[in-house]
Structures are given as structure tokens and as C-alpha cells.
TrEMBL record:
Family stated for the protein in its record: Belongs to the bacilliredoxin family.
One Pfam family recorded for the sequence: Disulph_isomer
InterPro entries according to UniProt: BrxB/BrxA
Protein name: BrxA/BrxB family bacilliredoxin
Originating organism: Paenibacillus glacialis
Top-level taxon of origin: Bacteria
Amino acid sequence: MSMSFDRYMRDMIQPMRDELTSLGIQELTTPEEVEAQVANAKGTALIVINSVCGCAAGQCRPGVGMALNHDVVPEQLFTVFAGQDKEATAKAREYFAPYAPSSPSIALMKDGELVHFIERHSIEDRSAQEIAAELTEAFDRFCK
């Protein structure tokens, strides 16, 4: 029995994708989808750079989930998967200047402008609750 590496990886990471999409976050898998959704986005948009690493599983995705239970949330919710949807991730990262590529990471945009960004180094040593608290503060500030 033989399975291709690409198929194996898709199957292995699907639950990691589902953890965000089950929250109503739209997955963007191509640069064209990113461009269409982010370039001219009006209002507020959350973009989660998903990843297979432990801090994505233990802190980032759970923190995002907790934050989305807040009364005030972004109007649009998106995710790209670093290391899997490489071109879509690269396109999304173009909007996050001056920040270096980082995964996982979380961006909050308002009318196409980056207004808040959480880099990997601010995720890996914090709890999901701390990340959720930072996000809800940003939501209160920029999404009202």
C-alpha cells in the first residue's frame, strides 16, 4: 500500500484546518483568493496564519476560538496555512509589513490596513487565554 506524501500531509493537517474553519473562518488557499478577499476588504478582517507547530495547536487556534466568542468580533474571518498553501500564505504576508514572516501569527486589518499583529514569538510563550485577551482588546479598539 502506497500513499503519496502530499495526500498524507493533506490528511494529517485536515483537523488543524477544521479547527479554524469550524469557527466560521474562511480558508484562503490560493493567492487569487487572498487578493480577492483582502486587497479591497472594507471593515475589519482577522487573518490567521495557521501552522502545524505545537504553539498553533496549544495556544493560537484555541486563543482565536475563545476570542471569537467575544461580543465584538471582526466582520470577516480568514485563514491561510503556512507550509501547505505556500503561495496563498506568501500573498497574505504581503499585507503584514513591516513584520517578518511568522507562523503561526494573527493579523487584524481595518479597511485594508494592518492595525494589530501577533507574531509567533508572542504566541509560543503565552496561554490561549492571554492570546484571546489580547485579541478581544484589539477587537474592542478596532471593530466597533
